[in-house]
Amino acid sequence: MGLLDLEFIKKRRQKLDLSLQEMAESLGFKNASTYMKYEEGTYSFKANHLPQLAAKLNCKIGNFFTDSFADLANKKQSSIEEEVI
């Protein structure tokens, strides 16, 4: 099971009335069925897909992660920023 909130991605796509084919094309996939396998979790989205996905879904990359992972990432980012200051 991945750390991405696939349910969020699917619901966001549906809310914006974007087809599987539109999503596939935005990520450089040839057809809707390939994209659907990513959205269902059969395949895993790669890091380089996330900026394109966020742009197409008009959201932040952080929205794709489950709350627990997002909290962990935010805590890690905060500790890095404190070290830099």
Key descriptive features of the protein:
single chain; globular; 5 helices; 85 residues
Please provide a written account of the structure.
The chain is mostly helical and 85 residues long. The chain has a single domain, classed as lambda repressor-like DNA-binding domains (434 Repressor (Amino-terminal Domain)), CATH 1.10.260.40. It is 62% helix and 0% strand. It has five helices and no strands.
Taking pLDDT < 50 over at least 5 consecutive residues as the criterion, the unreliable ranges are: none
Name the beta content range. under 5%
Distance between the termini: 36 Å
DSSP summary, beta strand count: 0
Give the overall pLDDT as a whole number.
85
Q: What is the name of the CATH class?
A: Mainly Alpha
What string gives the helices and strands in order? HHHHH
Structural class: mainly alpha
Helicity level? 55-70%
Choose one word for the global shape: globular
CATH superfamily: lambda repressor-like DNA-binding domains
In short:
This protein has 85 residues and is an all-alpha fold.
